[in-house]
Design goal:
Elements lengths: L9 H6 L9 H5 L4 H7 L44 E2 L2 H11 L1 E4 L5 H20 L4 E3 L2 E4 L7 H8 L8 H12 L4 E10 L23 E7 L11 E2 L3 H11 L10 E2 L7 E5 L4 E2 L9 E9 L9 H4 L2 H6 L2 H6 L30 H9 L14 H4 L4 H11 L20
Parallel strand pairs: 1-2
Antiparallel strand pairs: 2-9, 3-4, 4-5, 5-11, 6-9, 6-11, 7-8, 7-10
The structure holds fe (ii) ion.
Length: about 425
């Protein structure tokens, strides 16, 4: 038996890997800008994870970040033109870039809001009765909504049947993230009286120096929200403060105070993934419902594991758009399945990157994966009904020729490669 070279031994590696010797040490371990932000603003860090009725004073007396109020009532913000609800795309763009959020007025009609409100409250009660309610420090969340009502499928699609302002919202998201963006999750966040405020955080907790967002959150107010019922806490403009500090490698100083987001039911609020925000406190007896529908660059890992979690009935009727948003269209660099997807561009309905059939085969219990093969494999092994073979063949029959891959080899286009 060959002796393993000493350089491969764990002891040898450990001795040669003291922190000072490691490459990219500063970059990998840098916790900026959060570290300096928390140093300069310690009050936004710690929120004891307990329920209680002693949280907050909506009349804005204590000075804690969560005991605040809406911009129009806040002494530090009331004279500043923070985003207002509007349908004016130019204003929405300005608000997004300047303040890190914008409010699309009446993105959902009164009737559309009612459809979602009813479904959310009903589902929440059902999950409580089933003993599977997902309690959060703020109340209750309904996760993986796509499985829990047709209205949620349409919400993810920004379909005008449930989001009358869908085309406008999509335009803004596309401008922020570039084309090809996908959905990370759809959650109904219900804040209940007695809930705990959430520490301020960035959803985009990586690549903090980015000059444009890598993710945005599309919040839909199903309840009208304000300082009394847990309007989202946020620091206007903090997306820029945080990314500028990270890019310039300077510490974050004292931040402006947080406000409660206010929005009437039916408003969609797009927030920049770099914006500091957190769940507010509901001081009322009425549940506060906000739909959280994060969107992100297509190469990022998604919050919801849509590959596994989506019901087959939902997948069977899903539009190409919904499938794409859930990540069911592979690209060369993401989500390829046994090699199917190399050369694909992640387009809607693109057969060369469609991976749905693998999942449906698994659901039927007849997903044949390619395993070990060799020159002496028998015919039965070589001619096995590999699902890959079926999917590739279907893609070819679709008449689409796959684009040329990075190696110059045309993949999934008809020739074996
Ligand atoms: Fe968040």
């Amino acid at each position: 038996m060959n002796k393993i070279p000493i350089e491969f031994g764990t002891e040898h590696i450990a001795l040669a890997s003291v922190p000072e010797a490691q490459m990219y040490r500063d970059e990998v371990n840098c916790q900026e800008p959060m570290r300096s932000m928390l140093e300069a603003n310690p009050e936004i860090y710690f929120v004891p994870p307990q329920r209680g009725h002693d949280w907050g004073n909506w009349e804005y007396k204590s000075g804690s970040y969560y005991d605040t109020t809406i911009g129009a009532k806040h002494p530090d913000w009331r004279d500043i033109p923070l985003p207002q609800e509007t349908k004016d795309i130019k204003q929405l763009r300005y608000d997004m870039v300047t303040w890190g959020y914008c409010k699309i007025e009446d993105a959902l009609s009164v009737d559309q809001v009612e459809i979602i409100r009813e479904r959310v409250l009903s589902q929440a009660e059902g999950e409580r009765l089933a003993g599977i309610a997902q309690k959060t420090p703020s109340g209750q969340n309904i996760n993986c909504c796509v499985n829990k009502g047709r209205c949620f499928e349409l919400l993810i699609e920004q379909h005008p049947d449930i989001v009358q302002g869908g085309p406008l919202v999509e335009q803004l998201v596309t401008e922020a993230l570039g084309s090809g963006w996908i959905c990370t999750s759809l959650i109904a966040a219900i804040s209940l009286k007695g809930g705990v405020p959430q520490a301020l955080h960035q959803d985009q907790g990586f690549y903090p120096e980015s000059t444009s967002p890598m993710s945005v959150n599309v919040l839909t107010a199903i309840s009208s929200i304000d300082e009394k019922n847990g309007g989202t806490l946020l620091i206007p403009g903090s997306h820029r403060i945080m990314s500028d500090a990270a890019r310039e490698r300077k510490p974050v100083g004292k931040l402006p105070p947080a406000i409660n987001l206010n929005a009437k039911a039916g408003t969609m609020v797009i927030t920049d993934g770099r914006l500091l925000h957190g769940t507010g406190i509901n001081h009322t007896d009425t549940p506060r419902i906000v739909m959280l529908n994060g969107m992100q660059k297509p190469w990022m890992r998604q919050q919801e594991n849509w590959m596994l979690s989506v019901r087959s009935e939902v997948l069977a009727r899903a539009s190409n758009k919904l499938l794409h948003r859930m990540g069911y269209q592979a690209t060369t660099g993401t989500q390829t399945n046994e090699g199917h997807g190399f050369g694909a561009r992640g387009l809607l309905g693109e057969a060369a990157g469609a991976i749905l059939d693998f999942r449906l085969a698994a659901d039927r219990g007849d997903y044949h994966r390619v395993g070990e093969l060799c020159p002496t494999s028998v015919d039965e092994e070589l001619n096995a009904p590999f699902t890959l073979r079926e999917v590739v063949s279907k893609a070819r029959k679709g008449g689409r020729s796959a684009p040329v891959g990075i190696t110059g080899i045309r993949i999934n286009s008809g020739e074996e490669g």
